[in-house]
Amino acid sequence: MHINISEISKKLNLEENIIKNAFEKRIISLNKYKNKKYIAFKKKLRHIERGTTLFLNDGMDVVMGYPKIRRALLLDPTLKKYFIDKVVVEEKLNGYNIRIVNIDNDILAITRGGRICPFTTKKVLKLLNMDILRDYPDLMLCGEMVGLNNPYVPNYYQEVDNIIYIDKNTTITENLGFYIFDMRNRETNIPLLIEEKNRLLEKYNIPHVKPLGIFKKENIEEIKNIVMKLNNEKREGIVLKDPNMLVDPIKYTTHYTQYNDLSVAFKYLFDLGIDFMFSRLIREGYQSFEFNEGEKELEKRAISIGKAIVYPMVESIKMVSKGELITEDFELYFDSEGDMDEFLRYLKELHISYVVKKREVLNGKYRIKMGRVYPSTNDKIKSHLKGSLW
Ligand code: ATP
Ligand code: MG
């Protein structure tokens, strides 16, 4: 495939030798979706965000990566120090990040890593009315795909249960939905103001995360109450935004999330890195301090964290000892066998290892049960069980 490095260099304002070097180091990958060729940045390169996509079309359309959101370990004093005056609190949903764009009149869903995901692209077209991007092709819709029936971050959300088939004897429910949280110019990454974003999304009737409140930055008690409520409802956390988006958003998560993440991390204990585990433990320390926990509450937290670590880890060791393969399982629905195969090919291209556990056709819906394989966890436990030293 011919790639015009000098054109890319001009378009992105990035020197040619940096681009060549990035291709060699595979920081930039060359990809294809249907008739569209594009390059994707797997890492941040100078001013180009991780996950940026550049289409090799006439316009050399660029879709900037979604910026990293930094975390507050303490709400107080971080919010007072960081924000200008008011803070909009939005719910943080626990799914996967998607940017939806209109490129040459095709609606595409791009993942955090800058790849066009065939599964998500098709679901978006079914779930959302995309007139908004036909009217505003320079904008991108940034949002979270959530629900149990997705291949990346399967978590149940009661509000996205959709009946996709029903007759006297059978009901098939797909748990999948999409919520927009930002609208940005896709080439400059400049966001719309919160009010403007919500107004447009309402006008076009597009599901979006609704503000949980807007507070003076000193009013941290109210924000803490929101966090507590979300924790009780087993939800992920909050993203805090300046109403005019003049400073970058920041995030804060609930104990439930830390608990949940740790359970996952210790189930696949040799695959999810030590940094992942450590950062979640640290958050718990600051949260306990900030919420002024007494002895009882502290003990409750300690037990909860302990359980998140010990139970899944021991369960994994037991599974491997019985000769079972540790996988993360999920079920997906497709409209055709072709769509299903296309998605499996896409996962192969990404070098994601999985096993297909079951494929079936139910009333015209193609259902697949898959398990993502965590190779290090399986291999290492197996070898320790045979007596290998660490
Ligand atoms: P990073 O910290 O680099 O953004 P991460 O994978 O660690 O990435 P998270 O900890 O999940 O990400 O937090 C950031 C992500 O939260 C965003 O990329 C976005 O996908 C998701 N998110 C969910 N709800 C919102 C919201 N209301 N506003 C902004 N982002 C949200
Ligand atoms: Mg997330």
Report on the architecture of this protein.
Helix 8 (255-267) runs antiparallel to helix 9 and helix 10 (295-321) packs across helix 12 (375-385). Strand 17 (354-362) and strand 18 (365-373) form a beta hairpin. The protein contains twelve helices and 18 strands. Helices cover 36% and strands 28% of the residues. The termini are far apart. The chain has helices spanning 5-12, 16-24, 78-82, 118-127, 131-135, 194-203, 220-232, 255-267, 274-290, 295-321, 337-349, 375-385, and strands at 28-33, 36-41, 53-55, 62-63, 70-71, 86-92, 96-103, 106-111, 139-146, 161-166, 171-175, 177-185, 211-216, 237-241, 250-253, 327-334, 354-362, 365-373. The structure holds adenosine-5'-triphosphate and magnesium ion (MG).
What are the key terms here?
binds magnesium ion, single chain, 4 domains, D-amino Acid Aminotransferase, Chain A, domain 1, binds adenosine-5'-triphosphate, Nuclear Transport Factor 2, Chain: A, four-stranded antiparallel sheet, 390 residues, alpha+beta
